[in-house]
Specification:
globular, 15 strands, mainly beta, 40% strand, 200 residues
Length: 200
């Protein structure tokens, strides 16, 4: 294997990938994707689309998935820091309903691969974050699904987040430790919990 280190997460289908960074007084160079290295690591996904977003501190996007056209995602942060989370929604999986999270930052340059069959989301921990991801299927309008980011049955431990669950996915009453309010879209405040979630 050449320019990446691949570590399996505790949930099958999730991988943390660290590129080899070549740095000197001028800066650094790294390969952000190499199909041969991924193949040698046992990852044979085919990516069809690249996406990029920018979000400000306290923004939580998720937890999202596509129902009939599930996407595998290779995600990374090029500016700032986020806590990135995947929740297993695969029916029959030994880890159904379990979550795994990893902090992705411009400094650690880690990437997170999330296979099809997971809900995905992230919380922005820095003043702003630019988030890049490759996906294995195209975006299909009308195929969106979601899961409540704060469902106590799942129990995601979002870092720096303070607040008390009041029975819905509403952001009301939640904030980061520094007082920054939690910022969710209207849609993300209406998703239901695991017991009502779509299963793959």
């Amino acid at each position: 294997m050449g320019q990446i280190k691949v570590a399996k997460a505790p949930i099958e289908g999730l991988y943390v990938i660290e590129p080899i960074v070549h740095g000197d007084s001028r800066g650094y160079f790294m390969e952000t994707y190499n199909q041969k290295d991924m193949h040698e690591a046992g990852l044979d996904m085919l990516f069809v689309q690249d996406n990029q977003s920018m979000s400000t501190k306290g923004v939580l996007r998720g937890l999202h998935f596509q129902k009939q056209y599930p996407q595998g995602k290779l995600v990374r942060v090029i500016r700032g820091a986020v806590f990135d989370v995947a929740v297993d929604l695969r029916s029959g999986s030994e880890t159904y309903g379990h979550w795994y999270g990893v902090e992705l930052t411009e400094e650690n340059k880690k990437q997170f691969y999330i296979a099809e069959g997971f809900a995905h989301g992230f919380l922005v921990l820095s003043d702003a974050a630019e988030f890049c991801y490759k996906v294995t299927d195209f975006y299909h309008p009308g195929d969106e699904g979601g899961l409540a980011w704060n469902d106590p049955e799942i129990g995601i431990q979002w870092p720096q987040l303070v607040g008390e669950y009041k029975g819905t996915a509403s952001a009301d009453g939640y904030h980061l430790e520094d007082g920054t309010g939690l910022n969710l879209s209207d849609k993300d405040q209406k998703w239901l919990g695991l017991k009502d979630a779509f299963k793959f």
